[in-house]
């Protein structure tokens, strides 16, 4: 889901997404992508961030339509870097669980009280989420699978510009990451085709970085689709290097075992 991990001036900036960053001028100081990447890593905690083995977050996930919240769920999200994640959602009394380990995954549907394997599309969605995640970029999970280049400067808030890093995977998938001058990660931008073959621009916008144990995390992540905000992740707590049960990500044999393992 989140591969996450973890979207406010939306419509005014959306028209800029279709302008190649290179046409907006280059940074007069640093155009080396590894230099900009290192600045962002240092902003979120440097070696403390890179050495973290896992992350546990709690908060609320909201779905928006026409600027209003139409539904929200509590969540408990556990990530073991680089490619293992389990997220528990709770809406009212109904719990849903999504778990992924590399190229496999399973789901628990609380409405049906049933556990099933994820299909190919669901696994592919998780893997795409890892590609566009900030952690994936900063922790270097892309190395050996993609190339990183500096793509120029792009207007951000009034009087400011962001440096743009462009990550191109071997299969052609491209994701851009914008960084402020002080290294603050600002957003990730990618494109995909919808079922009708139309191009969809998806942004993840990061805000409200809070430090815990020397590591900074964005406590707000907004998803913006074609310039319109569609969801928000609002963390209430984020912890690192916590103890996680060995079988926490293993598909349960039955729903009783699943319910005993719930953290939400």
**CATH domain class:** Mainly Beta
N-to-C span: 16 Å
Number of domains: 1
Described by strand count, sense and barrel closure, the largest sheet is: 13 strands, antiparallel
- Globular, elongated, flat, extended or rod-shaped: what is the shape? globular
Low-confidence stretches: 1-28
- What proportion strand? over 45%
According to CATH, what is the topology? outer membrane lipoprotein receptor (LolB), chain A
Total beta-strand segments: 13
Question: Tags for this entry?
Answer:
alpha+beta, 264 residues, 13-stranded antiparallel β-sheet, globular, disordered N terminus, outer membrane lipoprotein receptor (LolB), chain A
Describe the structure.
- Mean pLDDT is 90; it is low at 1-28.
- Helices cover 17% and strands 47% of the residues.
- The protein has 264 residues and is an alpha+beta fold.
- It is globular.
- Strands 6-5-4-3-2-1-13-12-11-10-9-8-7 form a 13-stranded antiparallel beta sheet.
- It has a single domain (11-261), classed as outer membrane lipoprotein receptor (LolB), chain A, CATH 2.50.20.10.
- A hairpin with a 2-residue loop joins strand 4 (94-101) and strand 5 (104-109).
- The chain has helices at 11-14, 33-44, 47-51, 120-132, 134-138, 255-261; strands spanning 54-65, 68-80, 84-91, 94-101, 104-109, 114-117, 146-155, 161-169, 174-179, 185-193, 199-212, 215-225, 228-240.
């Amino acid at each position: 889901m989140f591969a996450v991990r973890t979207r406010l001036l939306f419509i005014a900036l959306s028209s800029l997404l279709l302008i190649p960053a290179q046409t907006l001028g280059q940074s007069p100081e640093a155009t080396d992508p590894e230099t900009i990447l290192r600045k962002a890593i240092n902003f979120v905690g440097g070696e403390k961030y890179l050495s973290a083995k896992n992350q546990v977050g709690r908060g609320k996930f909201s779905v928006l339509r026409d600027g209003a919240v139409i539904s929200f769920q509590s969540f408990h999200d556990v990530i073991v870097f680089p490619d293992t994640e389990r997220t528990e959602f709770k809406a009212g009394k109904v719990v849903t669980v999504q778990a992924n380990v590399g190229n496999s995954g399973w789901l628990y549907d609380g409405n049906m009280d049933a556990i099933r394997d994820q299909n190919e599309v669901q696994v592919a969605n998780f893997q795409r989420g890892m590609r566009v995640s900030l952690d994936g970029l900063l922790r270097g999970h892309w190395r050996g699978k993609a190339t990183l280049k500096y793509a120029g400067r792009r207007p951000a808030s009034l009087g400011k510009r962001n440096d743009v890093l462009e990550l191109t995977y071997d299969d052609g998938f491209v994701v851009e990451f914008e960084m402020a001058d002080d290294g603050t990660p600002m957003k990730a931008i990618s494109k995909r085709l919808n079922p009708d073959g139309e191009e969809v621009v998806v942004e993840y916008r990061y805000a409200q970085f809070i430090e815990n144990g020397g590591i900074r995390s964005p406590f707000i992540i907004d998803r913006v689709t074609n310039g319109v905000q569609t969801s928000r992740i609002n963390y209430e707590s984020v912890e690192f290097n916590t103890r996680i049960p060995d079988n926490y990500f293993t598909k349960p044999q039955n729903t009783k075992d699943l319910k005993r393992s719930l953290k939400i």
